[in-house]
């Protein structure tokens, strides 16, 4: 029997406790003769999402965002976050915490200004090799030194939740497209081509994809916690606390040995020859153990990440079916929102209604992430999460931003729509239209093979730049197949140098945020495929997977050119054709009205 709701509305931030907890940590620094300590958001598996027992950054500071790091000195503490979380972090932390925009230069300069000299401790299991080496090089020639330390947060977090090991389930080949045996042979071939004997894998979604397994060790993410070593002969060792791995892996048809997680360090020390580690995702401790035991570290990329990102035909066929059903649920939901003129609803009502609609689908196993239902000024917070304290009414003459998705057995969805509630100002319409123009520019783009995310990111921003506007997050992230809604290695971002390849699914989500007033984001998922344009087989383009109408009440048509109008009309025609026979008559009438052609 399913629980009532996947999403909780409790406020998990304990902001007021942050200053006292900081004092406890600073006392530990003095005991250890450290002048500073690093507290990252990550866990030992180095994934983006962490379990409650690993929410050390949130416990210490009160900040609950999915990315950030706190640098603690004996007399100061800086919380470093990216542009998505600047306002949220300031709201969730208390003095003496100082919130700073996160980039390497800001981090280094803050440390030099506030710690100045001495040893800064870090848990080598919570930082990647690349991160620690980069920081170490930045402090060369100074009086600051990074030193590995036991985890000091765990020493003072006396009521830390226990680590949970949940059910591990096989993922059927009818949905995966390839068996675990086929996948292991593919990865082993990559290792041979790179002339390495083995690779160390810690990312939960990489392990889940490779072994065709799914779990529930992290909320909203169908993964199980484990470490894995794969040899170039396809043999595998997996290290976990979950006894269910032993039963399930017997049926995978591969040479796999299941060992307790506490044997992982010893296994690393026994590795010989060249060992591949992903410098951006494998913990620094892993590299240290291998090198100290005589092994040779080969820095590279997680060999699973790219094959996982390039979905096979079975995965793509299922993804299209999944998105088609999800589009119908979204249309029913949006029709419901538009019918609420005579009764006041709030953000929690919105979240509950959308999840209730999706839950009718037998293949829905979870939501992809906590639904963002943000009314009015709350929409200016890109990753706003409603709770009982923040819950706001959806008021007339305002906007409602809803970013949501489902974890279905046959795919993972993620879609954002900004909805007009009553009449809108010209300021809002102009900003919305500029965001829409950016989404269209990416959707229509054709680009040479070898093009990276950084090469196309500006296409989404150019219409906003013309008006002196921008947004402080990437334009798009990769999406897994009934796996993490944020999947690497590809993305649409000014920082991404990963080339797009056929089969990659990526979000297309430009936005604009006017702090304290409103926020706008429009998001579709798109698929990289070969382009039919000439020269043959040398260009790629995107196939749109999400088919939910874009709110025409927010469009300033005078800002659109004829090609953009043509794209919108064609897109809405496809929305009608793909969805109208999957919804009830009331939603069908709404859909017909929302997909009417627009004219210049």
CATH architecture of the largest domain: Alpha-Beta Complex
Tell me the β content: 15-25%
Instruction: Indicate the percent of residues in helices.
Output: 25-40%
Number of domains: 3
Quick check: average pLDDT? 95
What is the CATH superfamily of the largest domain? Creatinase/methionine aminopeptidase superfamily
> What is the CATH class name of the largest domain?
Alpha Beta
How much is the radius of gyration in Å?
Answer: 24 Å
CATH fold-level topology of the largest domain = Creatine Amidinohydrolase
Query: How many alpha or pi helices?
Result: 19
Number of strands: 28
Distance between the termini: 52 Å
Unreliable sequence segments = none
User: Sheet with the most strands?
Assistant: 6 strands, mixed
User: Assembly type of the shown chains?
Assistant: single chain
How would you summarize what this structure contains?
With 600 residues, the chain is α+β, with helices and mostly antiparallel strands.
Which descriptors apply to this entry?
Creatine Amidinohydrolase; six-stranded mixed beta sheet; Creatine Amidinohydrolase, Chain A, domain 1; 3 domains; alpha+beta; globular; 34% helix; single chain; 600 residues; 28 strands
Structure write-up:
By secondary structure, this protein is of the alpha+beta class. The protein folds into three domains: 15-156, Creatine Amidinohydrolase, Chain A, domain 1, CATH 3.40.350.10; 169-308, Creatine Amidinohydrolase, Chain A, domain 1 (3-Layer(aba) Sandwich), CATH 3.40.350.10; 310-594, Creatinase/methionine aminopeptidase superfamily (Creatine Amidinohydrolase), CATH 3.90.230. It is 34% helix and 21% strand. It is built from 19 helices and 28 strands. Strands 4-3-2-1-5-6 form a six-stranded mixed β-sheet, with helices on both faces. The chain has a six-stranded mixed β-sheet with strand order 12-11-10-8-13-14, sandwiched between helices. It is globular. The model has no long low-confidence stretch (mean pLDDT 95).
């Amino acid at each position: 029997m399913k629980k009532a709701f996947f999403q909780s509305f409790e406020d998990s931030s304990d902001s007021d406790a942050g200053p006292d907890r900081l004092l406890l940590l600073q006392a530990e620094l003095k005991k250890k003769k450290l002048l500073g300590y690093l507290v990252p958001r990550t866990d030992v598996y180095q994934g983006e999402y962490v379990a409650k027992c690993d929410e050390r950054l949130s416990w210490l500071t009160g900040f609950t965002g999915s990315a950030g790091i706190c640098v603690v000195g004996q007399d100061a503490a800086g919380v470093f976050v990216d542009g998505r979380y600047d306002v949220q972090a300031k709201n969730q932390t208390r003095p003496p915490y100082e919130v700073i925009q996160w980039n390497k230069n800001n981090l280094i300069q803050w440390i030099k200004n506030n710690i100045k000299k001495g040893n800064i401790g870090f848990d080598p299991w919570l930082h990647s090799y690349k991160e620690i080496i980069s920081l170490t090089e930045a402090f060369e020639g100074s009086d600051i030194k990074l030193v590995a330390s036991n985890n000091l947060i765990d020493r003072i977090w006396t009521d830390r939740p226990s680590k949970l090991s949940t059910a591990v389930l096989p993922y059927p080949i009818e949905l995966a497209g390839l068996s675990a045996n086929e996948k292991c042979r593919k990865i082993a071939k990559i290792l041979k081509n790179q002339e390495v004997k083995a690779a160390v894998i810690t990312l939960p979604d990489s392990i889940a994809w490779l072994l065709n397994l799914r779990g529930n060790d992290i909320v909203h993410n169908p993964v199980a916690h484990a470490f894995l070593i794969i040899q170039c002969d396809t043999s595998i060792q997996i290290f976990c606390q979950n006894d269910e791995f032993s039963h399930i892996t017997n049926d995978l048809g591969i040479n796999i040995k299941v060992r307790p997680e506490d044997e992982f360090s010893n296994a690393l020390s026994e590795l010989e020859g060249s060992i591949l580690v992903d410098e951006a995702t494998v913990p620094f401790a892993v590299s240290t153990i291998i090198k100290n035991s005589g092994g040779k570290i080969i820095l590279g990329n997680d060999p699973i990440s790219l094959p996982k990102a390039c979905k096979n035909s079975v995965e793509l066929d299922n993804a299209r079916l999944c998105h088609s059903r999800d589009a119908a649920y979204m249309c029913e939901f949006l029709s419901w929102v538009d019918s609420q003129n005579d009764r006041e609803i709030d953000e929690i009502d919105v979240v509950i209604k959308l999840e209730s609609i999706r839950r009718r689908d037998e293949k829905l196993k979870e939501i992809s992430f906590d639904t963002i239902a943000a009314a009015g000024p709350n929409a200016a917070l890109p990753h706003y999460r409603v709770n009982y304290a923040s819950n706001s009414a959806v008021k007339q003459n305002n906007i409602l931003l809803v970013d949501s998705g489902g974890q279905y057995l046959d795919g993972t969805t993620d879609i954002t729509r900004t909805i007009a509630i009553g009449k809108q100002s010209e300021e809002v319409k102009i900003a919305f239209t500029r965001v829409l123009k950016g989404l269209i520019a990416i959707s229509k783009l054709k680009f040479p093979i070898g093009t990276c995310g950084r090469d196309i990111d500006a296409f989404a921003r150019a219409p906003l730049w013309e008006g002196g506007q921008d947004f402080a997050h990437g334009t798009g992230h990769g999406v897994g197949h009934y796996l993490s809604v944020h999947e690497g290695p590809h993305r649409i971002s000014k920082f991404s140098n990963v080339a797009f390849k056929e089969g990659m699914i990526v979000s297309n989500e430009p936005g604009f945020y006017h702090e304290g007033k409103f926020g706008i984001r429009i998001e579709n998922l798109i698929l990289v495929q070969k382009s039919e344009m000439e020269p043959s087989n040398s260009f790629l383009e995107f196939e749109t997977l999400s088919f939910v109408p874009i709110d025409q009440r927010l469009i300033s048509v005078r800002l659109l050119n004829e090609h953009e109008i043509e794209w919108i009309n064609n897109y809405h025609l496809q929305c009608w054709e793909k969805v109208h026979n999957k919804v009830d008559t009331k939603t069908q009438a709404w859909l017909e009205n929302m997909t009417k052609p627009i004219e210049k």
